[in-house]
Specification:
The chain has one domain (about 25-205). The relative contact order is 0.15. It contains 6 helices and 2 strands. Helices cover about 75% and strands about 5% of the residues.
């Protein structure tokens, strides 16, 4: 009876050990650098180019506002100087003084208009950037999940994250289990062969070289 019990225990232990090995073999954890994937995804480059173009448009709008503001400021300065010019008679100076006061109201209203413009456009640009980033990240996440299921991966961990102490969360990854390049290739398969994408890529490459210099 004791021999049978001992044999049963050994069999159970071997069975558990074998099951553990099978489960370990089936568990496939891989790693990917989300920062690289996001940065090298063609839609990210397109979004960056679009945001830069819109930023230039906003700058042009603001330049026009500032030009109009400077014109108003010059008109006010002229009226104020005339109001203090003793070479002019009192009636003319009084007229210029009244006009200067009215013009000053215009100047202050225009200053408020510029502030509202900065606040509104700044918020619009920030919100749009966040929406674009969220949409792109969601697409990347869905692609990674689909790819991981197809490849029978148990988990995909991000190596670009930092701990609360500012240290890399993943200190070392065996290159064989790093699928960053694979995911970038998968995401860029639908990349259209148009000038906009090529322009975005060349722009980023040029800016990268400039920063290195």
């Amino acid at each position: 009876m004791k021999r049978n019990m001992a044999g049963l225990c050994v069999a159970m232990a071997l069975g558990c050990w074998g099951l553990a090995n099978v489960q370990a073999a089936e568990t496939r954890v891989v790693f990917a650098n989300m920062d690289r994937i996001f940065g090298e995804f063609y839609k990210t480059k397109l979004a960056d180019t679009q945001l830069k173009e819109q930023g230039l448009q906003v700058m042009d709008e603001r330049k026009k506002l500032m030009s109009d503001f400077e014109r108003l400021q010059q008109e006010f300065n002229k009226l104020r100087d005339d109001a203090q010019n003793t070479a002019l008679n009192e009636d003319v100076r009084t007229q210029r003084r009244n006009s200067a006061e009215e013009k000053l109201v215009e100047v202050r209203d225009f200053e408020a208009k510029i502030r509202r413009f900065d606040e509104t456009r700044g918020k619009q640009m920030k919100d749009q950037q966040q929406r674009m980033r969220r949409r792109i990240v969601d697409e990347i996440r869905e692609t990674i999940q689909t790819y991981a299921r197809n490849q029978m991966y148990s988990a995909v961990l991000d190596t670009s994250g930092l701990t609360a102490n500012g240290v890399e969360a993943v200190l070392y990854v065996e290159p064989r289990v790093d699928i960053t390049d694979e995911l970038i290739n998968v995401l860029n398969r639908s990349r259209p062969a148009d000038a906009a994408v090529d322009k975005a890529s060349s722009t980023n490459a040029t800016s990268g070289k400039s920063e290195k210099k």
